[in-house]
Amino acid sequence: MIMRRRIALLLAVLAAVSTLTVPAAAAEREEEPAAQETVGEEAAQTGADTPEEGETAPEDGEETQEPAPEPDPEGTVSWANLDDRIRAESLNARILIENITGIEDIDYDLMYEDLRRQLNDIAKAQWMMILMGAGQAADALDQSYDSLRDVFESIKDGELQADNADVVWQLEDTVNQVVSGGETLYITLVGLEQQAADGQRGLDALDRSLEELHLREQLGQVSRQTVAEVEQTRAETVSQLSTLDANIRQLKVQLQNLIGEDPTGEIALGALPTQEEMAWEAPDYEADLEAAKAASWTLRSAQLTLDDAKETWDDAKSDYRGASKQYLYQQAEHTWNAAQLTYQSTVQNFETGFKSLYDSLANYEQVLENAQSALVWKQTLLNTAQTRYQLGQISHNEVLTAQDDVAAAQSAVDSAWRDLFSARNSYRWAVETGLMTSAQG
Fold first, then answer.
1. How far apart are alpha carbons 438 and 354 in whole angstroms?
2. What is the pLDDT of residue 69?
3. Alpha-carbon distance 341 to 338, whole Å?
4. Are the CB atoms for 296 and 351 separated by under 8 Å?
5. ∠ at Cα 21 (17, 25), nearest 5°?
6. Nearest CA among 68, 93, 95 for reference residue 80
7. 122 neighbors 34 (Cβ within 8 angstroms)
8. Are 242 and 252 in contact (CB under 8 A)?
């Protein structure tokens, strides 16, 4: 199996860089070449049902496909289009997709027939050399014949196709990592822009306080030191906002590279979907875990590694017999035991990570509910403050402070929803692709 996988990886690379591509097709083969003999011809055909007269064949995905979102205006990017834009424009994603396409375009029927012809040519050449008394030259072609025959047999048995399917699986998993990383970056940027807005609101509040303090300083009600302390706080806030703005620009450059935009650091991000807009069904832990495990390349890779280790162990049991090789047998046995434990650990870590994702959903939901309740309460306090201001009982600054409190509470709601949205998005990736990503909290 190890050798077959190496052959599959080699063919994957060759297919990716080859300038000759043919439509992909596969069919079962029944004949095989006899050793050092001419291989006979084979053919396989497949058929497909056609609609009866008067019946219209439905288009692929007609019932389930949702309308495509509108293209993003220039200088903007939306969550709805982010996935498609990364797959279409990210250089890393495009390289991987080209490799995937190259493998999927392999026509195993044509490859099979080409190998058959090559095997026949070698067999005929060897026969002619034997007739001419050049037996040694004929023997020199044995290695080439055997190598081609191994690949020929792997295609006939479907082993090469299966190995290449694993290669595609691995490459698609890597593409998904690129896309999910872009989504994480997008969510992070939305959060940082919210922090910037919160910081600007705090700066505006400091300016109001300074205006009042300067007036009170003139009246002798506060010392110069008190005013200076607030001025220093304002200077520090400005510096922090400047650093935050620089970080946002740097991350936007990374996002622009992912979606094929000029890396200017200037791009407008659309809002994340709201609770009402996000399609979400209550998760079924057991069913979702099984789906995630079935889709996981991490677990598939671990299984392939364990299969290879089992083959090595089986060979060792046959090769290391007798007292003189007992130490080699024991080493091989320990290696096999370690391989089994490594596989079990991989599965355990995957299940633990998935359980953590699942549990985080309920936690983020309750945090959002609390934040929403707090927002309602702050809005009530603002309404009261506005009424008291109209009655002349409090100053306008107190109303502005209450408005800031409402804005801060709304920001907390937005932050809590962003965390829940990120957790749900990570959970979706896990269930649908087996990719474990961390929610942004």
1. 10
2. 86
3. 5
4. no
5. 125
6. 68
7. no
8. no
Residue at token pair 């027939």: 113
Mean pLDDT of all residues belonging to the chain: 86
**H-run or E-run covering 76:** strand 76-77
Q: How far is CA 325 from CA 313, 320, 343, in A?
A: 14, 5, 27
Cα 22 from Cα 141, distance rounded (Å):
29
Residue type, 279: A
Distances in whole angstroms, Cα of residue 231 to Cα of each of 18, 60, 119, 151, 216: 66, 65, 86, 77, 15
Q: Among candidates 115, 110, 105, which has minimal Cα distance to 21?
A: 105
Best CA proximity match to 376, nearest among 356, 397, 406, 347: 406
367 Cα distance to chain centroid:
27
The predicted structure's pLDDT at residue 336: 96
Q: What dihedral angle (degrees, nearest 10) is formed by the CA atoms of 266, 268, 272, 276?
A: 180
Tens digit of each residue's pLDDT (9 = 90 or more) over 349-405: 999 999 999 999 999 999 999 999 999 999 999 999 999 999 999 999 999 999 999
Whether 272 and 190 have beta carbons less than 8 Å apart is answered as yes
Contact 114, 78 (CB under 8 A): no
Can you read off the two tokens belonging to residue 267?
């791009």
Does the predicted TM-score (pTM) go above 0.70? yes
Average pLDDT over residues 85-102: 96
- Asked if residues 350 and 299 have their Cβ atoms less than 8 Å apart, the reply is yes
Q: Cβ contacts of residue 155 below 8 Å, gap of 6+?
A: 29, 108, 111, 112, 115, 161
Q: What is the H or E stretch that residue 269 is in?
A: strand 268-269
Tell me the HSE value of 396 on the side-chain side, using a 13 A CA sphere.
Answer: 2
pLDDT digits (tens, 9 = 90+) for 205-220: 999 999 999 999 999 9
Written as six digits, the tokens of 379 are 């809005």
Find residue 314's DSSP bridge partners. none
Other CB atoms within 10 A of residue 233 CB: 15
Are the C-beta atoms of residues 410 and 375 closer than 8 Å to each other? yes
For 73, list phi and psi in degrees, rounded to 5. Answer: -60, 155
